[in-house]
Each structure stands twice: as C-alpha cells, then as structure tokens.
Amino acid sequence: MKNLLSVLKISVPDKIFLKDPETSVLGKKIIEHSIFLIDEIGFENFTFKKLGSKIGSNESSLYRYFESKHKLLLYLSSWYWAWLEYQLVIETYSIANAKDKLEKAIHIVTRNVELDSNFSHINESVLYKIIVNESSKSFLTKKVDKENKAGYFEVYKRIIVRLEQMILEIKPDYKYALSLASTILEGGLRQHFLTEHFPSITNYNKNNTPTHFFTQLVKNTIQ
User: Fold this and answer.
1) How much is the pTM?
2) 62 and 123 share one domain
3) What are the DSSP calls for 40-73, one per residue?
4) How confident is the model over 89-129, as pLDDT tens digits?
5) Does 50 share its domain with 122?
6) Residues 101 and 138 in one domain
7) Residue 111 included in any domain
8) Cβ–Cβ < 8 Å for 109, 184
9) Do 10 and 82 touch, CB atoms closer than 8 A?
10) Mind listing the pLDDT tens digit for each residue in 41-56?
C-alpha cells in the first residue's frame, strides 16, 4: 500500500502549466479563486483580467503560470482526475471481492463530491460542478489529438483503465471493458448534468442517483 500511494500524488502533467501553481501563494490563489469564478460566471465569460481583479493581481502575473484560460481549465480537470484516482485507490484497495470492489468504484466515480479538507485551497465540491458543466470544453477542440499525444489527459485515461481492469477481474472474456469503463465515467458526469439542467429527461433525483443506474447497468452487462 505504501508503495502504491507513493505514485498517487495529486499531480498534473507539467506541460499544462508554465509555472507550477502549487509552488507559490499566488499560484494557489489562482487555482482557488478561478474555481469559484468559473462556477459563478461560466468558462466562456471567464478571463484572466476578471480573475486578476478578484485576487488583486496583475493580469500579466497570471500568464506566468498559464499561457491561456484553456490551459487553466486543463489544469483544473487534470487535478480533479488525479484527486479522483487517489480516492479510487484508497477506498478500493482493501476490498478483496472483485464484484464488491467494482461496485465501490462505480460509487466513487459517479457520486456527488464532497469537500476534502486535505486541500485547503481547492474546494472539490465546487470543482466537481465545473467538471460536470465545463470539463468537456477542455478536449472538444481542434487541438485535442496534439494535446493527447503530449500527455495532457493521462490521468483521465488511467482511471478508465483502472475501471476496465476491475471489470475484467469479474469477466475476463468481456470484449467491451474499456467502452463500459468510459461509459461509467463519462455517463456519470452527463447524468449529473441532466439532473441539474434537463431534469425532465432523466430519472435521477436526490433519492435516486446515477450510481444506482450504473451499478445495475454493469451488473446486467457482465453477469
């Protein structure tokens, strides 16, 4: 367990940023307040000028950390996926039964996110709202293939592979484990989005979460 956790630090691919925001007070303020500002006004309306005004910093200082707001969104998304992977490993490590482990994993990647006190400058609950509403904008671009080759989405893809491996532990001959794994991860986000914005076309509410559906879907698919 100790060796496993040593490689699961909350780290973001260094090509995304110009200067690691975790290394300075200003950098942490950029991350902390960008989360709240994007949640408040949306990514389309978000600018470094507005963020600089919020934190009392020159716009040029923000560009020392990120060359664009797109890179900042990539950073926030990557940080979230790294944090989620950490939760996934911690909470499933001691579960020996393969079916119980997969069920727990589905719960982790589809549940509503609560605040994690281990990271005082990042509100994970608000960040999750950005992931649900805005994260697809980080890869639905013309540059996605180039950025993928550069390793910007490594952690996101690694979570899907972890889910795939758990599926294959139960049904080794299942041909579509990766597709099912990515459906769980992305589908959970989309259903939370629908619950908030288009509730008339989803069955979910506070008492019936996407976790219930994806747990049932996986059980019916690989039994």
Assistant:
1) 0.92
2) no
3) HH-TTT--HHHHHHHHT--HHHHTTT-SSHHHHH
4) 999 999 999 999 999 999 999 998 877 767 778 999 999 99
5) no
6) yes
7) yes
8) yes
9) yes
10) 999 999 999 999 999 9
